[in-house]
Amino acid sequence: MSDEQATTTDATSEAQALAARNDNRSQRPDSSAFREFITSGWAPRDTQTPEQGEFAPYTAVRRSALSARFPGTRLVIPAGAFKVRSNDTDYRFRPHSAFAHLTGLGTDQEPDAVLVLHPLPVEGHEAVLYFRPLAPRDSTEFYSDSRYGEFWVGARPSLEDVAALTGIQTAHLDELADALAKDVGADGLRIALLDDVDAAVDAIVAEVRAQADLVDSAQLDATLAEAVSELRLIKDAYEIEQMRAAVDASIAGFEHVVRALGRAVAHARGERVVETVFEAHARLEGNTVGYDTIAAAGEHATTLHWIRNDGEVRPGEMLLLDAGVEVESLYTADVTRTLPVDGTFTEVQRKVYQAVLDAADAAFAVAVPGKNFRDVHAAAMEVIADRLASWGLLPGTAEESLAPEGQQHRRWMVHGTSHHLGIDVHDCAQARREMYLDATIEPGMVFTIEPGLYFKADDLTIPAELRGIGVRIEDDVLITADGNENLSAALPRRPDEVEAWMASLR
Ligand code: GLY
Ligand code: MN
Ligand code: MN
Question: Low-confidence residues of the chain, pLDDT below 50?
Answer without folding.
Answer: 1-12
